[in-house]
Amino acid sequence: MAHSSLSYSTAQSSSAGNDEEFLNRRLYTRLRSQILTGHFRPGTKLPSTRALSASAGVSRNTVIHAFEQLAAEGYLSARSGSGSYVAANLPDNLIQSKTSKIATHEERNDSRFDHQINASVDDSPLRFARIQELRPFMIKTPALDAFPYAVWARLQERQWKKRRADVLRYADPAGYLPLRKAIHSYLTTSRGVQCQPEQVVVVAGAQQALRLVSQVLIRPGDPVWVEEPGYFGAQAVFQDAAAKIVPVEVDAEGLSVSAGIAWHPRARLVYTTPGHQFPLGVSMSVARRFELLQWAAKSGARILEDDYDSEFRYSSRPLPSLQGHDRNGSVIYIGSFSKTIFPALRLGYMVVPMDLLSRIQTAKFLTDWHSSTMDQCIVADFINDGHFMRHLRRMRTLYMERLDALLTSAHSELNGLLKIARPDAGMHAVATLPDGVDDGAVARALNRAGASTLPVSSCHLSFSRSSTLLLGFAAFSPPQIKQGCRLLAATLERVL
User: Fold this and answer.
1) Has this prediction a pTM greater than 0.85?
2) Where are the beta strands (DSSP E) in 393-440?
3) pLDDT at 280
């Protein structure tokens, strides 16, 4: 598993305009840093130049030159017919990040280079996150055309008319108390979460919750299980925290606990999306949930449950949270209003075990003191006045209609070029391309044609490749979906 973080952190584009010398230096620096910090131990076999070239999206010459430079400096040794290995005779003091100021500096600044490079990668998940205009099949975008704008405007006006000075002052880092109580009521009633209102912490979206947890719990080198494939935003946060990322396979029952134990039985943290796994869409089985909780209680690991869109379930009532089964304070629960209200609101929430509460609140204060109090007031009224639950019910009905429109249009327009599985929940469907087709190449072609899909290969940390796309349907009317399927069909016929 030592190879796994390379494909994410060194992913590049081979499109025109990339500076090959820069990419070579970038790859060399990243590999050297991982050797110096002990990520690759002496004697570790590195991926072949061909495999690393294919995974990173750079030319093989770029990889060869980086390997040659590392070998010349004594970091690598080549074995004829076997491959390249980290040199066995590195001094011990070189493999300790605490005593290697150069390596520590490179690790600390590596995420900045990753951001620069990701900006030029056609199939980088962070590039997809930067797309602002609404395009067919964008994922993670709710039906903003059906948002109750008039209701929101009335609530906003009502708050401003109160002329309350306390709303304009600095506030509690944990959040506006009436909102925390409203969130507590909703979670205990609808999501099966077991907590007290004081355990709720309001944050600037789920992404900030991930960041706060990494700041409080993760030290450089700490092992963290993440789902494979999994959510790119979480992968990036843990990588930036210099965690030892352990990709754990996802099967039909969710994250495989036995596989995680086999790879690293003493993980510090587990990141999982049990209600609706991202990106594959499976729900963690009851047996698997108890297996994970039992292992965490025994090992002392924390579980970070990201419940990002499981409110939208179509085959049954929403599944209760994993946190609701926790009796040992192992689970940190996070949710967001980005999918249920609107993304630009930038409000989310955490349910934090009591022993971590003070540290999380302190980290929130040090990050941005507190989220917008006025926005929190409006959301509290939106929940307490019953608008939130009515909105969720309407969106579930609407999304089922739009999912049906996607499946119908795909059947009539795509001529079998894609196989789309009907999801049980969420706002996107998983579409399978013919075997061997590069989903990243298809996604890039669709992007040039005016659509936006996410290739599942970009959600992998290992060298695994897939032929799978994610098609968002929640934000689009049936006519828009049909037009998008025609665009998709035309693009696939050119690419396949």
Assistant:
1) no
2) 419-421, 428-432
3) 95
